[in-house]
Amino acid sequence: MRSTETYWRTTALLFVMSTVVAVVGLVGQDKRQVAPQAKSDSFAIDDNGRKIRVQNREVAGANFKIVGVDLAARAEVLDQASRILGKVETVATGDASTALERACYRPKDENDNTRVIFERGEVSPSFVLTSEDGAWKWKTPCRRTAKITRNIATASGLHLGQTQEQVVSILGLPTSRSRTTRNGLDFLNYELDVKKKMSPRELAPYLQDELKVTPNLDQKAWIKNYGYYALDESIHARFINDSLTNLEVGWSETY
Asked: pTM for the whole thing?
């Protein structure tokens, strides 16, 4: 009897230990599911005054295009939205560097709570794809259009209802992630920037302006030092019970 009792106690103990190890392993694995730190990383301060890591990479341009509106296009984002989805009354907030002008579009189906909100900032256009109540908090109504439905997606395939794994398969590992276990919220954050070489067409007006000031300019040296621009990309995904409910996408070029 003692031998049998000892056997079952040992078996139970081993089971508990293996379960704990498995859980710890999963938790540790979950914490590691972010892009590893690299020497090329930089740091910035977000709107809340917090220091955040920024990856030195970019994602495909298709992530910044939805319902035909392209944040990376030369045309202004609200003008694109107006032309493709129809004119709508916009909402302006802030001033100077914090100024934002927003336009909201929604489905014709009363039971579909999808919203697409386009935003024009001082230098950075953005959009929000969301199904969350309260995402549009202004009295100005969203314009209804048949071009907005629950099934719309970015040109890269990001859409509401996706799991974290599906989003990561498109964007790669995030810069950071967080979880609120109490209400089942998960967040994937992508903060990216990269230095890119200007094309001759992009460079021409800047070079001409410099030549007006410095006629004897060493053009090769100037291009080597200044012929680049900064591309900044940000993507923030929020999930409820591992289902994407809010996607915020921002893009900007700084010359």
From this structure: 0.82
